[in-house]
Amino acid sequence: MLKKVKEAVRRYRLIEPGEKIVVGVSGGPDSVALLYCLYALSRQLRLNLHVAHLDHGLRRGSVADARFVQALAVKLNLPFSSARARISRRGSIEEAARQARLDFFFRVAKKIKAKKIALGHNLDDQAETVLMRVLRGSGLLGLSSILPKREILGFTVIRPLLEVRRKDIEAYLKRKKIRPRRDISNSWDIYLRNKIRNRLLPLLEKDYNPGIRQALKNLAESAACDYAYLLAVARKSKAQLGRRISLKKLSKLPPALQRLVFRLNIAALKGNTRRLSLQHIREIEDLVARRPVGSIVDLPQGVSALKRKKTLVFFRKKAQ
Amino acid sequence: MLKKVKEAVRRYRLIEPGEKIVVGVSGGPDSVALLYCLYALSRQLRLNLHVAHLDHGLRRGSVADARFVQALAVKLNLPFSSARARISRRGSIEEAARQARLDFFFRVAKKIKAKKIALGHNLDDQAETVLMRVLRGSGLLGLSSILPKREILGFTVIRPLLEVRRKDIEAYLKRKKIRPRRDISNSWDIYLRNKIRNRLLPLLEKDYNPGIRQALKNLAESAACDYAYLLAVARKSKAQLGRRISLKKLSKLPPALQRLVFRLNIAALKGNTRRLSLQHIREIEDLVARRPVGSIVDLPQGVSALKRKKTLVFFRKKAQ
After folding, report:
1. Interatomic CA distance for residues B130 and B145, integer angstroms
2. CB atoms < 10 A from the CB of B29, how many?
3. A254 and chain B: CB distance < 8 Å anywhere?
4. Which of A106, B207, B254, B309 has a CA 20 to 30 Å removed from the CA of A189?
5. What is the pTM of this model?
6. Which of B135, B144, B194, B227 to mutate to test the interface with A (most CBs of A within 10 A)?
7. Starting from the edge strand earliest in sequence, which strands make up the sheet with A303-307, in order?
8. What is the largest CA-CA distance in chain A?
9. pLDDT, tens digit, for every residue of A275-290?
């Protein structure tokens, strides 16, 4: 397994020698294996590892998980940071927990002046996530979800285990006699994910394409590559258009960019566009193209779009 | 069903009043229903329909199909063109047949001075195709396959039945007492497609997402929207770079555009990039980034890429 990790590190240029890296460790098999792998590489690459753990407090046993990770850090003689999060139970808990974890890792990275955060997702996670998003209906953005390397808010999130199968991680842990915590799930839509993991992916692998995981991986990677470019162009367009979007200038953009400009404007008001569907985007397109001046389209999470005489404006309603 | 067709015609602006349209009719349920629908609209929209049928000669009974379509055209008092194709049995027969059909429809359109070609794909076809491509491993290009409206070589290919379920087409034919030819398949990878149609899609619909077909449709549409823009930009980049691609200028393009420039150059030599996989694209990227001057990457169908001192050149080997 270490060989695959090294290969991924080289191919995607995940790590430079001498770097400081925050390693997000839940205590489950993936993140524990990740920590051991990076530890094994740390002398050769002169790495400066820092273990970080967020206790979501959403589950019994979460305190024991935190103690387990702390003991691991002590054993490897690595610095350790942890915190307890308060997760709102409104909306998607999985999403909120994911966001709280990332926020905490960013805080730790900022504090210790690290630029990189390593997370333990594996090849199976990626295949499951991509397939889940295809099944739920997703555009480019959703498909380009889990990547080996991604810039977020000035930090670089890396996933060195992304080329490794789950079973290889288990074999590695067994061989090294490492016993991670079990039944740790960061996934609250575990029901759907388990069905995909235990039933759908094996079925597709057997009856449709033995290389299905690689195929889904390629799809995610192509989508990410294309999306990165589209997003960069759309950001420029958004900045040029400003908050009062000239309908004339908007109409000169190709539809793909118009859609992304809508998304970016909504994200600027709400922080994310997770509940925004293609149906909503089409409504905005219809507003722009056909509806009379003064028409309003209501979007998720209290955001609305208003068509003025010469402009399109996104705004937040005061009372939700 | 006619209502859904009218809605699609309006939403995607498929047809302008008074237009001349070549209708591709295989004789199977979809294309026969399409012909009847367009015929029903033809007075209101003053359409000028022309029936076209290509006999691939790949199957017993294909002559009878041709006669059936001709009789249909006579019955509706519409002009009719047909031809027999000689399909090479090398490579993908389905692909060759599809191409031969389109070529023939374009020839007919040119001859009668039509700009539009109507084809009979339905909502189920689209869902099956998108899913097939996800399973096989595909990028944006593959996902944006079947669209309601698409410009090809100066013609517009429209698919007015793309919002209609297969079962609704069958119900329409039954109600109208129209009996199409059966067992007509333009699909030679019928084994995989049938498995997807009869087993996988019903399973996904039942256990994973009742709206799976709509989800796949949305995915295809988003991908097409994004791909159209990327392709337009990449075409400009390709023209600017010319045949001897400056490595320096290439390196300044974002990866998504570099990849498309590779594809476009290969397509310019071979007419298509259908056998080109992400693996090949990655090899070219590796050639550009790391391999010594003089290195060559061999690509499918006799095309190669050569790294020179300051340029990257694609060429066709003489002997295959």
Report:
1. 7
2. 21
3. yes
4. A106
5. 0.81
6. B135
7. A245-246, A311-316, A303-307, A296-298
8. 69
9. 788 889 999 999 999 9
Distance between CA A25 and CA B310 in Å, rounded? 46
Residue found by looking up tokens 């995915």 in the block: B219
With a pLDDT cut of 90, the percent of chain B lying above it is 59
What pLDDT, in 10s, does the model give residues B103-152? 999 999 999 999 999 999 998 888 888 898 888 877 777 787 688 888 88
Q: What is the residue type of A136?
A: R
Classify each residue of B264-289 as buried b or exposed e, where b means 16 or more C-beta atoms within 10 Å of its C-beta: bbbbebbeebbebbbebbebbeebbe
Residue positions counted in chain A:
320
Contact A138 B192 (CB under 8 A): no
pLDDT at A319 over 60: no
Determine the Cα–Cα distance for residues B43 and B32; give it in Å rounded to an integer: 18
Q: Which residues of A touch B138 (CB under 8 A)?
A: 215, 218-219
| A212 close contact with B: CB closer than 8 A | yes
Among partner residues B136, B140, B218, which is closest to A226 by beta-carbon distance?
B140
Q: How far apart, in whole angstroms, are the C-alpha atoms of residue B251 and residue B254?
A: 8
Q: Indicate the length of chain B as a whole number.
A: 320
Separation between Cα atoms, residue A64 and residue A183, nearest integer Å: 12
Q: What's the sign of the alpha-carbon dihedral A38, A40, A46, A52?
A: positive
Q: Give me the pLDDT at residue A90, please.
A: 60
**B8 CB within 8 Å of a chain A CB:** no
Q: Is the ipTM of this complex over 0.85?
A: no
The H or E element containing residue A99 is helix A93-112
Q: Do A215 and B256 touch (CB under 8 A)?
A: no
Strands A48-55 and A80-84: parallel
Q: Chain B closest CA to A220's CA: distance in Å?
A: 8
| Beta-carbon separation of A137 and B192 below 8 A | no
pLDDT digits (tens, 9 = 90+) for A33-54: 999 999 999 998 999 999 999 9
User: Is there a contact between A212 and B255 if contact means CB atoms under 8 Å apart?
Assistant: no
CB B291 within 8 A of CB B245: no
Q: Is B92 on the interface with A (CB under 8 A)?
A: no
> How many angstroms separate the CA atoms of B147 and B161, rounded?
11
Distance (Å) from the C-alpha of residue B19 to the closest C-alpha of chain A? 24
Chain A residue closest in CA terms to B217: A137
